[in-house]
Amino acid sequence: xxxxxxxxxxxxxxxxxxxxxxxxxxxxxxxxxxxxxxxxxxxxxxxxxxxxxxxxxxxxxxxxxxxxxxxxxxxxxxxxxxxxxxxxxxxxxxxxxxxxxxxxxxxxxxxxxxxxxxxxxxxxxxxxxxxxxxxxxxxxxxxxxxxxxxxxxxxxxxxxxxxxxxxxxxxxxxxxxxxxxxxxxxxxxxxxxxxxxxxxxxxxxxxxxxxxxxxxxxxxxxxxxxxxxxxxxxxxxxxxxxxxxxxxxxxxxxxxxxxxxxxxxxxx
Length: 268
Hints:
Strand order of the largest sheet: 1-2
Distance between the termini: 48 Å
Number of domains: 1
Mean pLDDT: 88
Strand content: under 5%
Helix content: 55-70%
Low-confidence stretches: 1-13
Number of helices: 6
Radius of gyration: 23 Å
Number of strands: 2
């Protein structure tokens, strides 16, 4: 659990309670300062997550057998969750298998990066800065547009912008709305939904644990008892953040599958 008390922001004078601020998401450079490859704590968390995912899947699948061991069973359960519960359920067996690699990558990458927000010493999600959510949403955006164009090369964009069955005179209203909702709002909300949940979750946890530190070590007299309440709330919100970490990965992945389903639908 995230019971390591976060440090106050730079510039804190040490007197009184200082809450979290947006500077939490712009930590100082740790390695390679002044070069195009400079790394801060969040970038190191992302690299660590990538390495951990690769190692875990390699260890769990290097000795595949008909009767799976414990590691192989866990990996297969996770893969089956994405394959059956998301890919095949929404896209069918053929298209589900086709897009399973990207959906699987999205789910496990986002889960792992979200969970680092509750890991002691890491204490921040790799998805809490816009870079990763934006890149993943961009990949999803290009993928479902490519899928639609490939399956319906002559109709995808036309039917997306000029929905069949709408009176011709209404296209002057409908088409701008379709452009905005499908090709602009969709990727923006796909990005922000993941990003903002991770930002808010981090700020709440930092707030509770900073308040706990303040009440226990700085508050006078009986005010120290408030630290018990903030610590309890911090513990509860840590559990809640674990749930949100998995839920947001599921939501991001299933929305990608839904967009693919819409792009591949025969109506196009």
